[in-house]
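Appendix B. Raw example, untouched.
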Amino acid sequence: MAAKRHPLPIETRAEVVELSKAGKSERQIALQVGSSKGQVGRILRDQRDKIENLKDVQGNIPNNLKRRKLVDIAPKYCEIENACVLFLERAKEHGIPVTGPMLRTLALREAENCNIQGFSASEGWLDRVKRRHGIHGRHLSGEAASANKVVVMNWMEQIPELIEGYDPKNIFNCDETGLYYKQTTSLSLVMPGDACHGGKAQKERLTLLICCSWMGEKVKPLIIGKSTRPRCLRSVDLENMSISYKSQKSSWMNGDIFSWWINEFESLMYQAGRKVLLFMDNATVHNIVEQMEFRAVKVVFFPKNTTCSTQPCDAGIIQTVKLLYRKQLHNFILSALTHECGEVDPYKEINLARVIVWLFRAWRDLKPATIVKCFSHCGFSKAGDIVEPQQTPLLETEAETLLSAEDEQMEIFPPVVEPEELFDKVVTELKDQLEEVSIQAIAPTEIITTEDDVAEIPNNKQVLQALETIELYAAGRGDDEVLGGGFNLAWYRQIIEERAHMEATQTTIEDFFKKTSL
């Protein structure tokens, strides 16, 4: 059997061309590079021009091309390719997305202008262009490309003057965002041969308004829905919920709702004896504050079309809250499909009451350090000051609570239990239960009971459902202390989930055989 051919690397083939230019014969070159005379001849005959085209200004082969096949990286239509790369760079400067069909159309136009015959701008040609220049597809997110950099820099230079005289804990930022509260993702894992079809698009939308301070203090969020009195909240006092709720026919923010919110915010600050600075974007509904007078709040607007680079809430706070909310949504879908064996449609079980609980958890789990970093990222700093993140409590929903907390505000949420401590606690409880079971098995006692005397212990699934019912009730009644205070339902939920996971032992093959006496 003939020996397998081993093509020379691109850098070696480039060396062959250079040695040939130096006047060496093909035999001398073959001995020096460790190849055959025929292979050297083929390189000089067929690949000399292609290798020359690969070299940069210094005459070197780029490192990222050395391990690729020459046929894939040697451009055949240089004029067309250069025009496409130039177009891509210009589109990037203007923040315009570019697709493959756009580049192919441009390539065909350039071929027509250059009188190039036989060029079809195929998918293969486009793939080779992408490989040569390292072009990849990406999702465009945010609006940073549309922000005027000069305006942003001038604004950041003005920030120290604007915030002069205000403590960082009294500098706030508020912003609205849309929340498709049933939407998960358009990507999914499927089995081989399965058709990849999605269900009905989940387009139910709420508007979420959040507000937080430079030092991580979080104000009670506001959500805007369509229904004036949602069915799931029919027996709930909407004024005392853990999250404020207002209605609008399109679930959008309007002037009436925003004026109500900012009056509530101003009232809390005034009764707490605080003078605060509130930054916000110049949305149309925000212009109503120019006609209002405040005793404890000074409103400052960000420059137009720059909030993606200047507003802390847009710098990662809103995105983090949405990610934490989606985590709650995914956990609910996972539990619903696992416990109900797929018989219940999880989306039909998602209502506004559950959304309020999940948003409360997401807002609670948002770390103050994240808020501080987002403010710093947007240029909030004082000359010579180093702002360190600190844990500050949420604003109380009742003015009386703020007035009574003179020395220090009451902390709503206790420290989160470390996973190691939680695991050790669960293991200890399980060991105690196993010891009790073992003792009963060794020395059984005869206890005569009736069905009325025995109370059936609920299983893990029933306990989790009961906890969820309590959380829904507490959220509807505004009992924040139940959700995150001394009762600590979230911590107990973790214990039950860990217990359910540990008790779900895998079935072995021995379980399918019964022991029989011979």
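End of appendix B.
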